[in-house]
Structure formats: C-alpha cells, structure tokens
C-alpha cells in the first residue's frame, strides 16, 4: 500500500479529529498549527462546557488538552508555531513550504484553520475611539473573565446572540448595570432573552449602533443611535458580535500557488460540498472555517471526521490504497 500523506492546517477540534480519523483509516496525517498550542478556539472557552457528550465538568481549555493527549497517544505529528507559506501542485499531490523554511509533499490537504472572534476593529472608524483606553474594550471570550469584580459598573455589550445575552445575564447576576446594542432583534435562546429582558438593570437598544465616543471627567461615554439618540456613560464595552474565518492568508497562498481561488461565503467562510470538498481538487475543509450554520466543538469534530473519510473514499476510487 502506498503511504498517503495528508496535511491538516489547524489543530482545533476539526483538525485534530481529521488527523485521528485519517490515521485510523490508514492514512498518514501531519498537523500544522500557527499557535504555540493546539486546541484552537477551545483555548478561549473558559466556562464549563456541558454540551459535549461525555465531557462533564470541564472547560473548553480542558477539552483542548484532552484532544491533544489523544493525538499524542496515536503518535500523529503535530508542528506548532508553523504556518504554510506556499503551495505548488506536483504529480499526485502538493508541495508545501512552511515558515521555518521546511517543506513537505502530501496527496491531500484539509483546511481546518477555524475562526477568530471579531474585536476592536469594528470600532476603529467611529469618531472619538482613538481617545479611548483600550483596556476598557473587552473582546470575545475574555468578556466572561473576572465578572465578580465588576459589581456596580455599567457594561455595554455589542452583540445579541447567545454569547451576548449569556454574558448579560451573568453580569446582571454579579450586580452590574447592562446595556445591549443589537444590530437588529435578539437572536439568542429564549431562556437567556426572557431572563435578561425582565431584569430592572438591563436596557436593550435594537437596530442600534455606536456613533461617537467621548471622554467626560476621565470616564467613557458613547452616543447610541437607534430609533432615538442617547448618550450614556460606560465603564466597559464587551464585543460579542461573532467570528470571522481564518482564511485570509490561505486564500491568497492557494490562488498564488495553484492559480485558482477558493470559493467562499460571507466573511470568507469557505464553501464546501456535502462531503467537505472545496472547489479546488485535492483540498478539503473542516470545522468552523466552513460552517456558517452550526459552528461548535461537536460539529467541528464530526466535520473533521467527514473530511478524512472523504479522502479515504476518494483514494479507494482511484486505487491508491
């Protein structure tokens, strides 16, 4: 049997699941991770995650460690602090170059780069933002840390999804005043929305946006425009408006090296068919990088497994293994 090498770019739940399944299916996976640790966005999930079957009483950070330990036991190569810098098509596969000057040849590639949380970049064009202390702007999962120390403070949350409303509920329970700015109507689970809306220290601004930042007596104020316009004093702003796909560099690298651009949805989430194939032959994608409908650790695990299974089936069709 020919040794079939599979490059997996990204070591979050999707990437590690793809690596595990590829190994079990008789392939030879190796994982490339740009960060210093594996686990992807799970490393920023500081709360207990009881949504993963069999993983009780553990945080996302714990889950990430458990996944990596499993990969280590399977003796699957994982290269951290490394990025793909170039790609070329060679007979039967791809020639990849990396940031440390090394190179590898593989038959297939699985892109599992995941996502990143949207941050302060969405505020940078608003007048007055340049004068704001950046330590008062909290991004993504860091909004859930140290809430007990915020009693009595006024927190403004940007984002009306599950994360935004769950954050609001937890802050209210800690004795904070909370205002939530929504681009439209709330999109969160009813169990969060109902509890938050009923709280006397909560305000909701629908179809709203921040139009100006001010500093008054060393305190931050913002102007909020919705059906009316109000100015409120704020202690902190929590940005919980979602995620963007980590496809920026990989789209360029593939287009430069192979002369074909990866198809994408909005916010550069990769398009894949029902079995994880992108529009570029030999390149597959798995996990949140291509999942705009149900991104989470559970769907990422399944997506990684599917990508590996698809590669195995494709090789069987061609008689490679």
From TrEMBL:
<dbReference type="InterPro" id="IPR036188">
    <property type="entry name" value="FAD/NAD-bd_sf"/>
</dbReference>
<keyword id="KW-0560">Oxidoreductase</keyword>
<dbReference type="GO" id="GO:0016491">
    <property type="term" value="F:oxidoreductase activity"/>
</dbReference>
<protein>
    <recommendedName>
        <fullName>FAD/NAD(P)-binding domain-containing protein</fullName>
    </recommendedName>
</protein>
<dbReference type="InterPro" id="IPR050097">
    <property type="entry name" value="Ferredoxin-NADP_redctase_2"/>
</dbReference>
<dbReference type="InterPro" id="IPR023753">
    <property type="entry name" value="FAD/NAD-binding_dom"/>
</dbReference>
<keyword id="KW-0285">Flavoprotein</keyword>
<dbReference type="Pfam" id="PF07992">
    <property type="entry name" value="Pyr_redox_2"/>
</dbReference>
<feature type="domain" description="FAD/NAD(P)-binding">
    <location>
        <begin position="5"/>
        <end position="304"/>
    </location>
</feature>
